[in-house]
Amino acid sequence: SSHEHKTNFKKSKEACLSYIQDAMLQKQWKRAAEFLTYYVESLEKDFSRERLNPSEIIWRIGSEILCHHSASSMKEFNSFIEQMKTLAVKRYLKVCLEHAFHLLCNGLIDEAYQNLSLAESWRFGEQTLLQDKEMKLIQAYRGLLDYCSWSKQKNILLHSQDGFDNLPVEQEMHSYFRKAALSLKEIIRIPGVWDPFVKCYVDLLEFYGDHNEARQVLNEYAYNSKFPANPNAHVYLYQFLKRHGESKKSLISVLKILHDIVPSHELMIDFNTMLQKSKKRKNQRLALEVIFAALDYAGWKENVKAWSCLARQIKQIVISEKHLDWIKQEWDTRKDWWPAFHFSRYLAKRNWQENESLSYEKALVAGILLGKDCKYFKYLSHQGCKAQLKKFRILKKFVNKHNPAYLRISG
Predict the structure, then answer these.
(1) Chain-centre distance for alpha carbon 145
(2) For 106-139, what is each residue's pLDDT tens digit?
(3) Is it the case that residue 34 has pLDDT exceeding 70?
(4) N or C, which end of the chain has less CB nearby within 10 Å?
(5) Which distant-in-sequence residues (6+ apart) come within 8 Å of 71 by Cβ?
(6) Over 60: is that where the pLDDT of 51 sits?
(7) Where are the beta strands (DSSP E) in 107-231?
(8) Degrees (nearest 5) of the Cα angle 366, 395, 321?
């Protein structure tokens, strides 16, 4: 019966897809290809009137298999993709974009560019909003390749004996610049995450001295509320301002937002250093907060610069006997878990064996925060003195002398 046929077909289709998924997860590409063949054949033999739309499944699974199958070739992949462009006509632009990515991954830059250029001239029915967005993405990636060509010509001119007196190369470079700038400018107007496009567009503008436009682009990318929160937007703005000698106040303002979004970002070292050098008390207070927050993350556990920043500021506060409440406020929220996270005896042994500088900075911090009886401090001060390292003897005396500071911090 028709109902029985539909039920059996649905079960067969689901089972076949399950087998394909299992084979792909186990990287059995030959087995996955065989099941995909059965899947396609079963669709061809289906006589039910139920409307099916398996084209995207075939395209995505087939592409993945061909990318990994040992017997696959670029010719076969290209042939498959061209068939998918015809079969999945409503997804034509997506297929073209993925095809271009595959060509780029295989070093076929000219072929990728040609593929994107052909996609730009494609039209299907009335231009929908989705098609318009996908077309802009196609144009943007083509612009990215124009930027690569511009960069290549620029390097030729910079390293040639004639410099910028080579008129044909310079004209070709300017041609690539115009095409790239036009495409990149269009895509970054649309709210979204466009990191590579923004970086390339700013590079073009900076090279030709249009710093005001570059600044405006980066400010818009970082601060426009229509764009999603993006740490890289603030990183690019900070790097631009730093390149152009902007004031410390401007740099601190940008990094403050980055700190709020990603307190573990690598630029927090720069941020802490600038804040410590500031004469404003609120900035110095923020510096302590920034470095404590960074060291909350496992990726920073063995960062010598970070521990050095914290040790230096804590030492200054303890010597001056001012603002011990700053340290206490930060330590109160961490004293239950930092000792096991940073200052165990096991870590003391490992740090001593692997990095003497790290162990020294951490020992100073541990001695102030946990006192002279702290396991981490006792082990390292003993090893340092045993090895006759002068700085460890001085460290031990410093911590013993300022043990009252520990008592105040610990409450």
Answers:
(1) 21
(2) 899 999 999 999 998 887 666 567 778 888 999 9
(3) yes
(4) N
(5) 30
(6) no
(7) none
(8) 70
What pLDDT, on the 0 to 100 scale, is given for residue 165? 65
How far is residue 112's CA from residue 107's CA, in Å, rounded to a whole number? 9
d(Cα 33, Cα 24) in Å, to the nearest integer?
9
| Other beta carbons less than 10 A from residue 266's beta carbon | 14
Residue 9 half-sphere exposure, CB side, CA atoms within 13 Å?
A: 19
Q: What is the pLDDT of residues 344-370, one digit of tens each?
A: 999 999 999 999 999 999 999 999 999
Q: What is the distance, to the nearest Å, from the Cα of residue 35 to the centroid of all Cα atoms in its chain?
A: 37
Q: Which long-range contacts (CB under 8 A, 24 or more apart) does 298-304 make?
A: 299/264, 300/264, 301/341, 301/342, 302/351, 302/354, 302/355, 302/358, 303/269, 304/355, 304/357, 304/358, 304/361
Instruction: Say what angle helices 356-370 and 390-401 make with each other, to 10 degrees.
Output: 10
Closest CA to 290 of 277, 306, 279, 302: 306
pTM to 2 decimals?
A: 0.84
If you count them, how many residues does the chain have?
411
Domain residue extents for the chain: 126-243
Cβ proximity of 53 and 13 under 8 Å: no
The token pair that represents 333 in the structure block:
């929220």
Round to whole Å and give the CA distance between 83 and 86: 5
Whether the predicted pLDDT of 377 surpasses 70: yes
What's the token pair of residue 150?
């511009």
Q: Which tokens is 396 given?
A: 């031990």
Q: Are 310 and 291 in contact (CB under 8 A)?
A: yes
